[in-house]
């Protein structure tokens, strides 16, 4: 009986931890997108816009990795996590392309489709990253 209670308590705790991680994941995503835009905005004042945008993406990717480790999942950065994080972003990019194309095929408006794609991809990305950062 005690092990049943302990198992139930652990499951509830794990569920709460997952919810907290998801909230931190959303906040971190907003922060990382802001870093991308700020770096892009500042650099585009001085250099070519495509270079500025790509540089902003790279900087935000590295910031996002670090904050995902430390803030979202409360772990130390490691090469294993970096490889998994990079792979999850590659999967996420492919998912965005496929889902956006599907939305266009079924007639969803081009200004609405990104929100649907981002919502679906975000959930899948979080699931992949939880697996990458499992202890």
List keywords for this structure.
single chain; 135 residues; mainly alpha; 4 helices; 84% helix; globular
Could you characterize the architecture of this molecule?
This protein has helices spanning 2-44, 49-72, 79-105, 113-132. Helix 1 (2-44) packs antiparallel against helix 2 and helix 3 (79-105) packs antiparallel against helix 4. With 135 residues, the chain is mainly α. The mean pLDDT is 88.
Task: Produce a short descriptive summary.
With 135 residues, this protein is an all-alpha fold.
Overall SS class: mainly alpha
Q: Tally of extended strands?
A: 0
Estimate the mean pLDDT confidence.
88
Large-scale geometry = globular
Uncertain stretches of 5 or more adjacent residues = none
Relative helix content: over 70%
Number of helices: 4
CA-to-CA gap between the ends?
Answer: 27 Å
Q: Estimate the strand proportion.
A: under 5%
Helix/strand order = HHHH
The major pleated sheet works out as: none
Please specify the SSE layout and strand pairing.
Layout: H1 2-44, H2 49-72, H3 79-105, H4 113-132
